[in-house]
Design goal:
By secondary structure, this protein is an alpha/beta fold. It contains 13 helices and 10 strands.
């Protein structure tokens, strides 16, 4: 068996492990600026030490690996050591979770297209990926940010972001990393559920067309999409069941069956609502998915714990309990066993 065949099998194995069973992924890859902004609201010091302490709290949560298969890290975090001097990434691996890494450098305004953005980070990416592999990362993430509005997203925006996602994914697989492909259509705006459906399907079709052109192995990648949902400013908010049905229909229309798995982003939804939507998909149409449907949430898992912690060591245990409870809610949703009572217990 040649090296390329071995690499393909390794990628498939990692991707399958990440979406197997009833586990999901925990996104803890917020940039320093984003993390500091959330800290500021809770009067937590916006320092490297505070960010280290917060991420150490997360990855040392007892039994977290029962719900979480992999964690997505930021560049600062993958290099950080815990208070005891051991590397955070080693603690993740020792706990039986697979470490991943965010590799894009953020979305910037797209020249000539007001209101639209293009994600950067391809320059020097091949070399950065090699370094991350030597540090222990086994998968990566790249997020494209796409707004829905009057006349947007444009074809130029969709195709430019799809091209960047495909180049990133191909480079990841070359390096031996499973690419998580994240084309996020934002919840901000007043668009209807129907408009979100139309644009999400168009974006996904565009992304997969370009992934094919770049020879990305679908069995060795994970899609991280938004759910099909009404805009936050829409006067008519879709029900949980309507979101579940529209999301499933959209994915079936646009996502090839060969993809290893679909891990939803929460996109600003509350933790309980994101769980309810995922749960409804598994309850209403449990046998119609060609791929596993799971979660890759950030704030939807972290926020209650951060509000309890507030940067104080005395609150660590209670915060970890809240974090685990939120992850357990999402694990239950994958099994179609999430309930409103469970949600109220872990807001």
């Amino acid at each position: 068996m040649d090296k390329r065949q071995i690499n393909r099998q390794e990628l498939t194995n990692i991707a399958d492990t990440l979406v197997a069973g009833d586990k999901g992924l925990l996104a803890m890859d917020e940039s320093n600026a984003t993390c500091n902004k959330r800290f500021a609201v809770l009067n937590i010091p916006q320092t490297e030490v505070s960010r280290r302490d917060w991420r150490e709290l997360i990855i040392t949560t007892p039994n977290l690996c029962e719900c979480i298969s992999g964690t997505i890290l930021y560049d600062e975090t993958i290099r950080q050591k815990k208070r005891d001097g051991s590397f955070i990434i080693k603690t993740i691996m020792d706990a039986g979770m697979i470490p991943g890494i965010k590799v894009d450098t953020g979305a910037k305004a797209m020249a000539g297209f007001p209101g639209e953005k293009l994600t950067g980070g391809l320059d020097g990416l091949r070399e950065r990926l090699k370094e991350y592999v030597t540090m222990g990362a086994r998968f990566a993430k790249w997020r494209s940010v796409i707004a829905i509005g009057e006349g947007i997203p444009s074809r130029a925006c969709m195709e430019a972001n799809a091209h960047a996602l495909a180049c990133y994914a191909a480079l990841c697989q070359e390096a031996g990393l499973v690419p998580m492909v994240e084309p996020e259509l934002l919840m901000t705006g007043d668009h209807t559920l129907e408009k979100c459906y139309e644009r999400t399907e168009e974006v996904l079709r565009t992304v997969f067309n370009v992934l094919y052109l770049h020879r990305v192995m679908l069995e060795g990648m994970i899609l991280k999409p938004n759910m099909v949902i009404s805009g936050l400013g829409c006067s008519k908010q879709a029900t949980v069941e309507e979101v579940a049905d529209a999301t499933i229909k959209c994915l079936l229309q646009a996502v090839p069956a060969a993809v290893a798995g679909v891990a939803f982003l929460s996109g600003g939804q509350s933790g309980s609502l994101a769980s309810a939507h995922l749960n409804a998909m598994h309850v209403r149409r449990p046998s119609q998915f060609p791929w596993p449907l799971t979660f890759s949430f950030a704030r939807a898992i972290q926020q209650p714990a951060m509000e309890i912690w507030q940067g104080k060591d005395a609150n660590i245990t209670e915060a970890q309990q809240a974090l685990l409870h939120r992850a357990q809610c999402d694990r239950a949703a994958r099994r179609g066993e999430y309930s409103e009572v469970m949600g109220k217990a872990c807001v």
